[in-house]
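Practice set, problem 2.
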Amino acid sequence: MIFVENEFAPLKKVILTVSEFGFPEMMKVEDLRFLSSTALEGDDANAGKDFGEVYPELQKAWEQERNNFALLLEKYGVEVLRPRNLTTLEKVSGGEHGYSNFFVRDPFFTIGNAVIEGSIRFMQRRNEIWPIRDVLEREVYQSDCLYVAAPRPPWRSRRSWDYGMALF
């Protein structure tokens, strides 16, 4: 049974992320306005590259941090589920927008017995739901709960996966 009473209720089961990120070939200025200028340094040089190739030591640290957190959660009786890694095809399908698989909490959320798949604003994050679908099929689709998926934003043209209008 899936049911989240509130955000302070005891945690029984969680999906813990893996860390995959491919830098977009070019970030849109409006997508970066929430970041500090120091957080943006070096992004142009990394355009189109895999984070793990650009920062191998930091990638290893991210992965170790996730593994350590999983052990800590399990120590306290929390069942930890993990998404799979993105496939090569899924990474390539991100095209100029890059790819992401490191914020597993964002593509969906649970309120009561309703699991809601959202629609992610950032282009490189729109397909983050793919590696979680296996977990959703196993844990959610078979459960007595409501599953709702929000539609993706409209395409501006056949060649663009951008928003059809300014939303922010």
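Problem 2, part (b): a different protein.
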Amino acid sequence: MSHAPCRARTPAALASLALVLAACSPDTSDSAAPPDIVTLPPVLSVSQAAPEPIRASLIAMGTHDESVEVKVASGTDGVAVSVREIIIQPGVSTGRHCHHGQLISVIRRGELTHYADLHPGGERVYRAGESIIDGAGYVHEVRNTGTEDVVLTVTYMMPSGKPPTEMNLAECER
């Protein structure tokens, strides 16, 4: 197998590096952009065409009061990553379940109660602006105990081939 010389890959590598660096230094001088959208400066262009600006939208942001480690065992085809918006109506519960991987939830609106043995007293209330980091294997339940819909943005990192939510508790680690 032959490899192309390093210099043949330089324009693509520089464009990739510029994209990464541009993401670190937003240009907020574009007053026409809505406040929740950050317009980034143009990146290096390999072609002669004028570069398009890069726009990034903040979808959800929450805080977590502890350190976070993300580690997910791979399935036969690696790790599947998906992002979902979940809306839970008042009084509704997810039922007891677990996850085969890890997920990060940001509560965007409302208040929910997370029932799990890992919390003092077996439960913890989360409010808008907070985040939940769920690890693999432990059984838990989430209920909207408030009076308005709970809106969550959830990033799932699961071994490929595994469901995002496991309702068969026999499949959960103990």
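Answer key, part (b): DSSP finds one helix and nine strands in the chain. The radius of gyration is 21 Å.
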